Amino acid sequence: MEQGLFYEICGVMASICLILGYLPQAITTIRTRNTDGISLPGFLMMFIGAVCFMLQGILHKPEIIWSLFITNLVTMVCSAIVFCIKMHNDYFKKKE
Predict the structure, then answer these.
(1) DSSP characters for the chain?
(2) Using an 8 Å Cβ cutoff, are 57 and 72 in contact?
């Protein structure tokens, strides 16, 4: 197998696995709004990491690494949503 093809297959498989591993937790959190077991700094770091990986995928020369970009776009959006829900829950929990 050509090295470039193997590289692409590994990237796509990693993308699929990461999205399928992360998305169910994000969907559950969005549906239930339960963020008691979620670390605020952890999700902030995941968001920042996803942004950095997106930039790496976009800025890669000579071509964009789409699998890296798309995976981290999904991760970034989910992390941002969960982070906002966590901030909202923590803010209103302190008011009680």
Answers:
(1) --HHHHHHHHHHHHHHHHHHHHHHHHHHHHHH---TT--HHHHHHHHHHHHHHHHHHHH-SSS--HHHHHHHHHHHHHHHHHHHHHHHHHHHHHH-
(2) yes
Nearest to 83 by CA among 40, 52, 22, 23: 40
pLDDT per residue as tens digits for the range 31-83: 999 988 888 888 888 889 889 999 998 998 888 888 889 999 998 998 889 98
Amino acid at position 63, single letter: E
Residue 15 CB partners (closer than 8 Å, separation 6+): 67, 68, 70, 71
